[in-house]
Amino acid sequence: MQPTLLILAAGMASRYGSMKQTEGFGPNDETIMEYSLYDAIRAGYGKAVFVIRREFADDFKKIIEPKFKDKIAIEYVFQEMNSFINGFKVPKERQKPWGTAHAVLCGKEVINEPFAVINADDFYGKDAFEKSRKFLAEECDENTYAIIGYDLLKTLSQNGTVNRGVCKVDNSGNLTSITERLNIALKDGKIVCDDDKEPKELPLTMSASMNFWCFHPSVFPFSEKMFHKFLQENINKPKAEFFIPIVADQFIREGGTIRVITTSAPWFGVTYKGDAPEVRKSLNELVKKGEYPESLWSRMKI
Predict the structure, then answer these.
(1) Distance CA 272, CA 278 (A)
(2) Cβ–Cβ under 8 Å, residues 28 and 140
(3) DSSP H helix total and E strand total for the chain
(4) 294: buried, middle or exposed (CB in 10 Å: 19+, 13-18, 0-12)?
(5) N or C, which end of the chain has less CB nearby within 10 Å?
(6) Which positions ≥6 away from 92 have C-beta within 8 Å?
(7) For residue 86, is it within any domain?
(8) The CATH number of the domain where 75 resides is what?
(9) Omega before 97 cis (within 30°)?
(10) Rounded to an integer, what distance in angstroms lies between the CA atom of residue 183 and that of residue 293?
């Protein structure tokens, strides 16, 4: 069975200032997620599931379906405030859905096979998709998940702070813990975090999660149980978010294994408007090297 790719595209893009998931960055206005889909299709993924906001559905379908409908199976699920809240009342102060782990949970009804999770607005590279496809086909089970690990230093932005899942890895290459750190930046040659956690300074060699995960469908009931506990503790905190690292860390604590798969692929993404020119430059360089065709879909045959 071919694995599925779950693409998180429901973010409000508040810091970027527009619907960045549908903005063109490639030579022919390809979006970043088109490159992810291209890499996923040639790596052997069989289905793409998009987690989106219901009000964005028409815009997404106009972009996605003409290019991909004959190349990969496509489904859409909606991340909404009342999804999986199990009778809790959403406070009026709540302005957006419950975070990335909640977004993954929204794929529960349409995913029954091992699957990968990515962000719509991050570029992950061919190598990452090939390695994830191999893991999902050969190793993934209800007790063994994986994460694609990137060098934290290479994922920072020159245009503002970023949030990252910071990874600790044992000698066997397995994740021992992952902590969501906020407001990370490079200052005076040091990686520093401006949040309520310690340490404030992180090692320059630290591995980071860029939200490229490999899961077995068993993650759905596990996450749903955790989400209900999260709501009990955070229902009245309008900015609290249920992040994937929260689920991953608990999975490890309960005896599960999460392999850290390192990749040689470059990572880049758009958090701020100022990141866009560098992303365009990076994509053009990859095209010039022959890693992608200038017109992304003109040469792909399924």
Answers:
(1) 11
(2) no
(3) 7, 13
(4) middle
(5) C
(6) none
(7) yes
(8) 3.90.550.10
(9) no
(10) 36
Instruction: Please tell me the distance from the alpha carbon of residue 201 to that of residue 198, in angstroms, as a whole number.
Output: 8
Q: Please check whether residue 117 lies inside any domain of the structure.
A: yes
Residue 191 — pLDDT band, cuts 50, 70, 90? very high
pLDDT in tens, 119-158: 988 999 999 999 999 999 999 999 999 999 998 888 888 8
Is the pLDDT reported for residue 118 higher than 50? Answer: yes
For the packed helices 32-43 and 126-138, what is the interaxial angle rounded to 10 degrees?
40
Please check the confidence at residue 6 and state whether its pLDDT lies above 60.
yes
Residues above pLDDT 70, as percent of the chain: 94
Dump pLDDT digits (tens) for 237-250.
888 889 898 999 99
Backbone angles phi, psi at 249, to 5 degrees: -65, -40
Number of domains in the chain: 1
Domain presence at residue 194: no
Range of the domain at 101: 4-143+209-245+265-288
Q: Assess whether pLDDT exceeds 60 at residue 13.
A: no
